Amino acid sequence: MGITIVGMGRAQGVEPQVLERLKGCAEILLQTQAYPGFRGIQEAVGGRYLDELYESSQNFAAFNDRVVRMALEAAEKGEVALCVAGDGAGDNAAAAQLLSVARREGIAVGVLPGPSLATLALAEAGVVPERGLRVTDDLKKEGLTANSGMDLVIPEVNSPLRAGMAKLALLEAYPHDHRV
Description:
Distance between the termini: 45 Å
Oligomer: single chain
Strand content: 5-15%
Strand order of the largest sheet: 3-2-4-1-5
């Protein structure tokens, strides 16, 4: 029994080797039905979407805690996969927390990595982070200290509310004439 965290990059599709790896899982947790890749997994091998859990959680920390608890409980019965957008560890706070907790509790855990959302965003924007790169999901003012010499990526901006929070945090942290 163990846990595999599957990073799916943009989650626009699903690779055959990912489907093969998921076939033996007793439980497959899918980040959302909003991306075609997760729908492809659900159609091919099944799985449970986490959208309802996300919508019913008070905040991101509560959501992450619930995902971790769900995955750990499922791991008691068999192999579990948590499929997320991004690289599978650093781009998704719930996946990173699960990885940390499982390791601490001695539960076998691995990552089937995908492309990082930060890398994908930079490539799409045509930015080469020659001056350094900072990736964060911390939208509190303390988490976004201004550093105009370094590129910043906030990967989990996945709703209009989250986009508004990010914009407000950036406006508070950076000078008014800084390019966002």
